[in-house]
C-alpha cells in the first residue's frame, strides 16, 4: 500500500514537471532589458516579450501591425518612458485594441518612474529641433542599479494584478537585486583600472554607465541625439580626440560601424561594437550577460589591447 501511494505520488510529480507552466500574466515591453527583468521577477508565473529587439534602435521601431497583434492579449505593458519609445509606442498601443494596457490603466507601467533622470533639459525642448531626448536621458537601463528599481516596481505591479503569487514576485525581485549587487561588485572591479578614462560613443546613451563606472564622456559621433554625423563634425571630433588622447569609440549594432571606425582610425584609436540592450550581440540574452559582455568589451578597448581600429 505504501509503495502504491509512493508510486502514485511520483506519477503526480512527473505529470506536474512535464506540464508546461501556466503563465498567469502576459507581459510585453518596449525594450529587451525590461522584458528580461520582467521574466526574472515574474518567474514561472509570467511570459515576457519585448517589441524592440536588442539589435534595433529603440528610438525608431517601425510601428508594424505585427507588433500591435503581438500585444493584443497582454495583461501588462512596460514602457521605457522618457520618450525613448515616444516615436512609435503611441501608434502601437492603440493599434493593439487591448484596453488593459493603455496608458492610465493598471496594466500600463512607465518604468522610468522612480529613476534619477540625468541630462534633464533646461527650458523647452522640442522633438522638431531634432532632439530625441526631450525629457532627459532615457537610457537609464545602462546602469545596473536602475534595473533593481525596475525590478522592485514590477514586483509591485505583478502582485497587484496577480495577488495569489505576490510572495513569489517579492522573493524573485529580492533575488534579482541581490544577484545584481554581487554582479555589480564584479563589474566595478573590472572597470576600476579605467576610472577617469574618456570615451566617445555614437549616441548619447552612455551617461548612466559612465557615471556608475567613473568614465568621462568626451563626445558623440552624432552631433545631436538622432542626427547623423557630418564629415565636418567627424573631422573636428577626431582632431579633439587626438589632442586629448581619447582612443575609444563605442557604437551599437544599429549605428554606423563605418563612421565609428573612420573616426577611431583618424584619432589613432579603436572602435568597439557594444550592446547596451540585451540581445544586441551574441551572448547577451539577459541583463546579466549583457553587462558581462558590455563591461568586458569596454574594459578591453580602454586597456589598449584591442589591436588597432576594428
Ligand atoms: Zn537616445
Write a concise synopsis of the structure shown.
The protein has 310 residues and is of the alpha/beta class.
Structural class: alpha/beta
Q: Any idea what the shape is? A: globular
Radius of gyration: 22 Å
Average residue-wise pLDDT:
91
* Low-confidence sequence ranges: 1-21
Give the total of beta strands: 8
Largest sheet: 4 strands, parallel
User: Bound small molecules, which ones?
Assistant: zinc ion
Strands across the major sheet, in which order? Answer: 2-1-3-4
Sheet-strand content, in percent, reads 5-15%
Overall helicity: 40-55%
Order of helices and strands: HEHEHEHEHHEHEHEHEH
How many angstroms separate the termini? Answer: 70 Å
Counted by DSSP, the helix tally is 10
